[in-house]
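pls design
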């Protein structure tokens, strides 16, 4: 696996980089062609808390994990464990869907707008999928909602996680 490590208000030392690569190399065993995968790691500091965000886009899905901790090395360990749990938890679902391609190309624009309310915009190039695949993708990303194009209706829909841990769907016409 290749790594793109960048820091926000923190200098990435060789010790930090070494720790990240050592920990994330544990995930190589879950990918057939791990040489072609690039993990994007962002380290941020806000006050005393240190946040580590890891995004691993693959051909079939996108893994994402984020952890906060006062100790940077502990945050790296926690996010690695979180990603490994996600892979193991969804292993059978991923095997069932291996013949389907539900990759997304994310283009992120970060702009500071005059209103100071919108701080990030995302453009999603969606491919049609069913509700089960959308739920899987949402869980792999670790989000509470997910926008997708419904394969049956070809309309944009939103799947979201409810407070009772069930899922809801919002459909458009």
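designed seq:
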């Amino acid at each position: 696996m290749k790594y793109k490590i960048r820091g926000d208000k923190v200098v990435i030392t060789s010790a930090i980089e070494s720790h990240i690569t050592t920990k994330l190399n544990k995930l190589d065993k879950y990918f057939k062609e791990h040489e072609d995968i690039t993990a994007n790691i962002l380290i941020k500091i806000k006050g005393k808390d240190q946040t580590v965000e890891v995004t691993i886009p693959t051909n079939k899905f996108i893994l994402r994990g984020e952890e906060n901790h006062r100790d940077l090395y502990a945050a790296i360990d926690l996010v690695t464990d979180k990603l490994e749990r996600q892979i193991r938890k969804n292993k059978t679902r991923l095997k069932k869907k291996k013949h389907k391609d539900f990759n997304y190309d994310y283009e992120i624009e970060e702009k500071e707008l005059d209103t100071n309310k919108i701080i990030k915009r995302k453009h999603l190039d969606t491919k049609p999928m069913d509700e089960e695949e959308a739920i899987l993708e949402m869980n792999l990303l670790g989000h509470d909602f997910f926008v997708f194009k419904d394969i049956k209706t070809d309309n944009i829909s939103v799947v979201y996680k409810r407070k009772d841990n069930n899922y809801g769907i919002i459909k458009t016409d």
